[in-house]
Amino acid sequence: MIDIYYVEDDENIARIVKEYLEQRSCRVSVFHTIAAAQKAFEGHVPAAALVDWNMPDGRGDSLCRWIRSRWKELPLIFLTVRGDSRDIVSGFENGADDYVVKPFELEVLYSRIRALLRRAGNVPEQYLSCDSVRLDQNRMMVFCGEEEITLSQSEYQLLLLLIRNKGKTVTRERILQQLWDSNGSYVNDNTLTVTMKRLREKLHNPSCIKTIRSFGYRMEDTL
Description:
Blueprint: E1 2-7, H1 11-22, E2 26-31, H2 34-43, E3 48-52, E4 54-55, E5 58-59, H3 60-70, E6 76-80, H4 85-93, E7 98-101, H5 106-120, H6 123-126, E8 127-130, E9 133-136, E10 141-144, E11 147-149, H7 153-164, E12 169-171, H8 172-179, H9 189-202, E13 209-212, E14 216-219
Parallel strand pairs: 1-2, 1-3, 3-6, 6-7
Antiparallel strand pairs: 4-5, 8-9, 9-10, 10-11, 12-14, 13-14
GO molecular function: phosphorelay response regulator activity; transcription cis-regulatory region binding
Keywords: DNA-binding, Phosphoprotein, Transcription, Transcription regulation, Two-component regulatory system
Pfam family, one: Trans_reg_C
């Protein structure tokens, strides 16, 4: 199932595109404002995004720029009602990979999506997030909001383990075993407590990291 975000204020066009793509093993989430799309992106990264040029609360190129600043490999197509070269140039300058001019053939749109997906690979697996905390697995980079956070190896591995298991409680025993004991570095329980304390401080004490007393930790979305 290909997960696609479609940012479009025209409900009729959105319905037609959604129905067509969902007949081709896509799961399409439609957002009628840029603000709604941004909120959805913060909680989940899709496999690809379609962005209309004219939106009630802004222009599509500004959303393209916002998306690209966070998810560099995400396949991104913007839709313009005119073949205006200025619109097209602005879209590419702000991070779009391709464009389609309305009215468009649905088969053409789908083929463009498939082509970009083949080139990009599985983007959702690369990017993990929980509230304002984002992790890029390919680059081993961590962000809190707009700020890039520098972590030690043990802090990064702890965050990675928790965010990969978002919504699930991970026991202290499992964390110690996977992050330290499996590498032959036998440490005491206090090492985990100290590492977690430092991780939280660097991430500005996010509410999405929960302590499950006498058991372990859990990451979950709170926004």
